[in-house]
Design goal:
about 90 residues, mainly alpha, 3 helices, elongated
């Protein structure tokens, strides 16, 4: 389980570093979202593959990294879209 959280932390940091633009959520929020989404994705794969709930598997680790990346990109896209909606109102 701890490895999934570390994967989310690493992916959150990389996405924040590589895709940083004005209007994006703060780095702390991105790291938190990465950790939570990676943990959920890794645990979900463990349940789907009928593994031990807290086991660390290669598929679970990969799913944790991919899940964190997808959620973080969606969060960034959502924040940019809401920012552009606010600039149109002004």
């Amino acid at each position: 389980m701890f490895a999934y959280l570390v994967a989310g932390l690493i992916v959150g940091g990389l996405v924040s570093y590589l895709r940083r633009r004005p209007g994006d959520p703060p780095v702390g929020v991105q790291l938190g979202v990465g950790v939570v989404s990676a943990g959920i994705a890794g645990l979900a794969v463990n349940v789907l593959l009928d593994e031990d709930f807290l086991a660390i598997t290669a598929w679970g680790f990969a799913a944790a990294a991919v899940g964190a990346f997808v959620v973080l990109v969606l969060v960034q896209a959502r924040s940019r879209r809401s920012e552009s909606d606010h600039t149109l109102d002004a």
